[in-house]
Design brief:
The chain has about 500 residues and is α/β, with parallel strands linked by helices. It is built from 16 helices and 22 strands. It has a 7-stranded mixed beta sheet, with helices on both faces. A 6-stranded mixed beta sheet has the order 9-8-7-10-11-21, sandwiched between helices. Strands 5-6-22 form a 3-stranded antiparallel beta sheet, with no helix packed on it. It binds NADP nicotinamide-adenine-dinucleotide phosphate and magnesium ion.
């Protein structure tokens, strides 16, 4: 049974910035409001951080980086992360509910993230005591010992989107605590509450003040953070366009930058695949979180002999998905995050038929009763989509699947790669040779064979091409928060 009482954190009081361990108003006194995607109700008033607040937060993060935190031993940072994991687990329902209420993720799906969140925090805890340099041989004419030291990169500015706020906050703060960095986190204005509460739990877990700071606000807040001269690294998750702006802003002080951007991922079903398994996975590979997932398999390529059969099967599956309020445990399809996102998705619902695509199911807003207060879109399938259509090229970030027919392996790989993105891809076949060929040739950061969406903190995730650079998950995730120092000692 899922308890759906209101989390204590939503208490009607305005939410302040978290700087140097203190809850503070924006210096300008400005605030903004956050509304529930599902019910339309006001969830909270939040402080709107300006450039001067970002500056305060960066100063606090710098002082903490150089202060007592720098003397925390790896085992002490590990202990802090393990305490944080326990606190997060004890409060998991409330944390997940903040996302359910604020950005509209259906409650059953939100509760399902518990295991992954725990594995992640414990993974970062393990990483804290596993950081090491190397001893390297050299050919210098005199005797010199050469080795590397791994050191924390410093003050991290992290900017995250609204589609997975709790998880995104954990994947930015976790490696910061593991490596001894400090952080100023800017959540999305549509989903600030779970990151704010997560940061409070860091303090409760024994993270010193100033190590984890949160500046809530708008795009300008993120822009101020990405241009701040004393930020050493920017870790960004979000859209490609914003990512490009951040890269440009970071150039002034030559920051280290990692980018987790969008995608238009191919999911390829060959005629010899287990079609019973492929059907629900292909559908949920798009409709999960109402399509507001960066790695969604939104270009679904189906081999011609089974094309129409699969179009009908996936459409039947999609038409049966339960659409409802976010707090209803039966709900699979929740609302889009905002009116702005709805307008964006709607424009593509109109565009599909104009471009000549065949609407098989969905294609419209769902209203009535409780659904009148938010923006629900029925799971939508366009068939007979061709590569040059905009619905097949642009990231829609809504519950819209484009199904394209193909005739051969070479052809489909070429078409799968004909995109500026390269975040993920799927392959469905019983032929191991075909699967391995596709794995090698698809230019994307994650490939799933005969399933879709597996993620783990031990396995790297990230983009090729314009889907970004750097990896989250795996050793590279931790490494992105470290500097390497080469040391030479005359012996
Ligand atoms: P977005 O507009 O790029 O926003 C992401 C974050 O950047 C938000 O916190 C946003 O603040 C902030 N921001 C906006 N303008 C900024 C600027 N000029 N400088 C610095 N920060 C700025 O993305 P979104 O529409 O919220 O999220 C959806 C996008 O994220 C999709 O494209 C999706 O594919 C991508 N995404 C990628 C991944 C991944 O791991 N690869 C994961 C999730 C989402 P405000 O929200 O307050 O404007
Ligand atoms: Mg926004």
């Amino acid at each position: 049974m899922i308890e759906t009482r209101r989390p204590a954190f939503i208490d009607g009081k305005p939410k302040q910035l978290l700087i140097d361990g203190q809850h503070v108003d924006a210096l300008s006194g400005k605030t903004f409001q956050s509304f529930s995607a599902s019910t339309g109700e006001l969830v909270a008033d939040l402080a709107l951080a300006g450039a001067e607040d970002v500056d305060r937060a960066v100063r606090a993060a710098r002082a903490a980086f150089e202060g007592p935190w720098s003397r925390f031993k790896p085992a002490e940072r590990q202990a802090v992360l393990l305490r944080l994991a326990d606190l997060v687990d004890a409060e998991f329902q409330d944390l997940a509910l903040l996302d359910v209420i604020e950005m509209g993720r259906p409650i059953t799906a939100a509760m399902g993230l518990r295991g992954m969140l725990q594995r992640s925090l414990r993974h970062f805890a393990g990483a804290a005591t596993a950081i090491h340099g190397e001893t390297l041989s050299n050919s210098f004419p005199v005797d010199l010992l050469s080795y590397t030291l791994k050191e924390p990169v410093g003050v991290v500015g992290a900017i995250i989107p609204w589609n997975g706020p709790l998880f995104s906050a954990a994947w930015k703060i976790g490696p910061v605590l593991a490596t001894g960095c400090t952080i100023v986190l800017k959540p999305a204005e549509d989903a600030s509450l779970s990151p704010l509460r997560f940061a409070e739990l860091c303090l409760e877990a024994g993270v010193p003040p100033g190590v984890v700071n949160v500046v809530t606000g708008a795009g300008e807040t993120g822009a101020a953070l990405s241009a701040h001269p004393d930020v050493d690294k920017i870790a960004f998750t979000g859209s490609c366009e914003t990512g490009q702006r951040i890269i440009a802003a970071s150039a002034g002080s030559v920051k280290k930058v990692t980018m987790e951007l969008g995608g238009k991922s191919p999911n390829i079903i060959f005629a010899d695949a287990d079609l019973d398994a492929a059907t629900p996975a292909a559908a949920m590979g798009v409709f999960n979180n109402s399509g507001q997932v960066c790695a969604a398999g939104t270009r679904l390529f189906v081999e011609r002999p089974v094309y129409e059969e699969m179009v009908q099967r996936i459409a039947a599956f999609a038409a049966n998905l339960k659409i409802g309020p976010s707090l209803d445990p039966e709900t699979v399809i929740g609302p889009l995050v905002s009116a702005k996102q709805f307008a964006r998705v709607s424009s593509y619902l109109d565009l599909g038929p104009q471009e000549g695509a065949r609407l098989v199911t969905g294609g419209h807003r769902v209203t009535g009763g409780a659904l009148d207060q938010g923006h629900w879109v029925a799971p939508t399938i366009f068939a007979d989509v061709t590569d040059e259509m905009r619905i097949a090229r642009e990231e829609i970030f809504g519950p819209v699947s484009c199904i394209l027919p193909f005739d051969s392996l070479d052809e489909v790989i070429g078409r799968a790669n004909a995109t500026r993105f390269g975040l993920a891809g799927g392959v469905w076949t019983r032929d191991i040779g075909k699967a391995m060929t596709a794995v090698k040739r698809i230019r994307a950061g994650s490939i799933w064979v005969n399933h879709y969406f597996a993620m783990d903190p031990s396995v790297p995730f990230g983009g090729y091409k314009m889907s970004g650079y750097g990896r989250e998950g795996g050793a590279e995730h931790i490494d992105a928060y470290l500097q390497t120092k080469g040391v030479w000692i005359r012996t």
